[in-house]
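Bench notes, afternoon.
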Amino acid sequence: MPHQTKDESPNAEPLNSALTSLQNIDRYAKAAADSAAQTKDESPNAEPVSASDTVRNIDGDATAAADSAAQEQVVEVDVNVASGSPLPGMKQQLEEAVSIPKATVDILKDQVFSFDTFFVTSHEPYEGGILFKGNLRGVPAKSFEKITTRLENKFGDEFKVFLLINPEDEKPVAVVVPKQTVEPATGSVPEWAAAGAFGVVTIFTLLLRNVPVLQDNLLSTFDNLELLKDGLPGALVTGLIVGVHEIGHILAARDAGVKLSVPYFVPSWQIGSFGGITRIVNIVRNRGDLLKVAAAGPVAGFSLGFGLLLLGFTLPPSDGLGIIVDPAIFHQSFLLGGLAKLILGDVLKEGTQLSINPLVLWAWAGLLINAINSIPAGELDGGRIALAMWGRKVSSRLGSVTIALLGLSSLFSDVAFYWAVLIFFLQRGPIAPLSEEITEPENSYIGLGVAILFLGLLVCLPYPFLFDPSQVTDFDF
């Protein structure tokens, strides 16, 4: 039989390992004996070390050495992060996977989070970042502030941390991602150019909406452009309400440190415009800030629109300015019909036309645009308000129900149909994560958000009652 070397033998490595262990035990035994002898010489009354104690010490040293070796092996493993975005509404900017060193993960666990803010029990790679599970300590807002400060002190602006709710178990989790992961993506077309094009078309549809002659025959519009000047007063009033809505967003965003994109005004030949689409281009700090920014637009728009609507009802139509309408138009909105009945009283009868100030219709168009934007779905103002008040899980379910109801309404209303399509393709979300999504807004702002959603519902729901109860037919049974 040919001689087999140590490297060639399949059993060589286990034998070598056993031999090494025996040599270590012999070395440990000699060291223990020398130590015992030295102790005996120095202290005559000391008890001799028994053989069993020596063996136990040797076994303990060997176990500790094995644990230390295993720990060193774990420390050497880095956390590989995939290229997908770990957060809803975020676009991954990394072209390839990155690896976060294990030493960095340890610093995050022990020095950034720590026991006084977020005690980490486990962590795992989570697409574009690392998800830490554990126990949140103290007030969420204050704990998050400490975590953010420590993260900046240790790593500068290399990482971004989010304190979120795990949708699986409804418990707080922390997600740390490289900062470049959440940088906003830039489009190929400049925003101002695209927004300007949408704005020009919206101005045209606002003018067109207030010229009934052209609405009846859209193909004749370009042959009668001079008639568009007749729609200028109505376009100015409705456009003013929409513009004030956007200004409300801008002012609130500036106060909360939120950056907004250029508003894209969406044209509509039915009501002139569907309002503006404004993206949030940075990370919002918390739900309170999101609620303030989202609610500011509807508050401003509803306030101005409601004031102009009351003014239109109270001012009698002047000669040549009043318009003749059928009372059936007031049945399109619960708010509009209720105010008409309250202010006009017995003048308002089914089937009897009446003259009103056109400011009523112009203001109502502005209120309807605000109400549509207050629908609690997707990235509309209403969807952002719902998330800020009730969290991501509840707002997601509410949005699904709302879109389903809007889809059913589209069978009877072309406005509902176009808006359902718009939400589905442009505004269905999801809303980008907030830095800290656990702390609820103040009760006063929650009350404001509920009022906005309720007012939007009153504008969109039809008025179901007859204006003149005496017109109800008596039935013989």
